[in-house]
């Protein structure tokens, strides 16, 4: 699927880490939300509220998932889940285009 | 208006200048298009195909419009137009969140 139809898009961007991580929020007819975002190379730590599914559309990054001791590498066409109320760390190697789904 | 409703959003980002300028494409029910984008600090030159209306949602940048000799400063809540088939230069001072409308 190359596009999302019949969605509401918030005009204002979500901006983190001086703009090195930014995203746009999409709201679907069923009330569910996704963000489409860009991460520039760098190291970041993020926390979740809801469970998240992170789909990597392009790019490459290493991820340390909650409770994990080993970093795992993700790139184009791969995905990972992060539990709710958890922290995870990212080392973004190249500009990364992602889609994050928030799962209730 | 804080959101756009009933739009189609392309999943893949538009990525320019090593990710320092990125945007998402929105298609409206009437077929018209807008992009919602982020520009990180830096100097850029862009060209238009269609006429563009650039609305600055947040940020600050200096713009040299086609044919102009003086740079003009734009920030939160301001906007400028660029004619079709023209080049314009930007000096982005702080992370800038914009909405670009393509006008036929």
Automatic annotation (TrEMBL), chains A, B:
Catalyzed reactions = uridine + phosphate = alpha-D-ribose 1-phosphate + uracil; cytidine + phosphate = cytosine + alpha-D-ribose 1-phosphate; a purine D-ribonucleoside + phosphate = a purine nucleobase + alpha-D-ribose 1-phosphate; xanthosine + phosphate = alpha-D-ribose 1-phosphate + xanthine
For this UniProt entry, the molecular function terms from Gene Ontology, in alphabetical order, are: purine-nucleoside phosphorylase activity; pyrimidine-nucleoside phosphorylase activity
Q: What class of enzyme is it?
A: transferase
Q: Which CDD domains match?
A: cupin_PpnP-like
Q: Which UniProt keywords apply?
A: Glycosyltransferase, Transferase
InterPro entries from the xrefs? Answer: Ppnp, RmlC-like_jellyroll, RmlC_Cupin_sf
Question: Per the record's keyword annotation, is Transferase included, yes or no?
Answer: yes
One Gene Ontology cellular component: cytosol
The EC code for this enzyme is: 2.4.2.1, 2.4.2.2
What the entry lists under Pfam families is as follows:
Ppnp
| Classification via PANTHER family | PYRIMIDINE/PURINE NUCLEOSIDE PHOSPHORYLASE (PTHR36540), PYRIMIDINE_PURINE NUCLEOSIDE PHOSPHORYLASE (PTHR36540:SF1)
Family, according to the entry, reads as follows: Belongs to the nucleoside phosphorylase PpnP family.
Question: What does it do?
Answer: Catalyzes the phosphorolysis of diverse nucleosides, yielding D-ribose 1-phosphate and the respective free bases. Can use uridine, adenosine, guanosine, cytidine, thymidine, inosine and xanthosine as substrates. Also catalyzes the reverse reactions.
Write down what this protein is called.
Pyrimidine/purine nucleoside phosphorylase
Q: Give the species this sequence originates from.
A: Desulfomicrobium norvegicum (strain DSM 1741 / NCIMB 8310) (Desulfovibrio baculatus (strain Norway 4))
């Amino acid at each position: 699927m190359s596009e999302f139809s019949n969605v509401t898009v918030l005009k204002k961007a979500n901006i983190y880490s001086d703009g090195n991580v930014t995203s746009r929020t999409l709201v679907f007819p069923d009330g569910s939300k996704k963000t489409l975002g860009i991460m520039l190379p760098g190291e970041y730590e993020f926390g979740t509220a809801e469970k998240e599914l992170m789909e990597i559309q392009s790019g490459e990054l290493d991820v340390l998932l909650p409770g994990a001791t080993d970093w795992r590498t993700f790139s184009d066409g791969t995905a990972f889940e992060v539990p709710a109320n958890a922290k995870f760390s990212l080392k973004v190697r190249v500009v990364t285009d992602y889609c994050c789904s928030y799962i209730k």
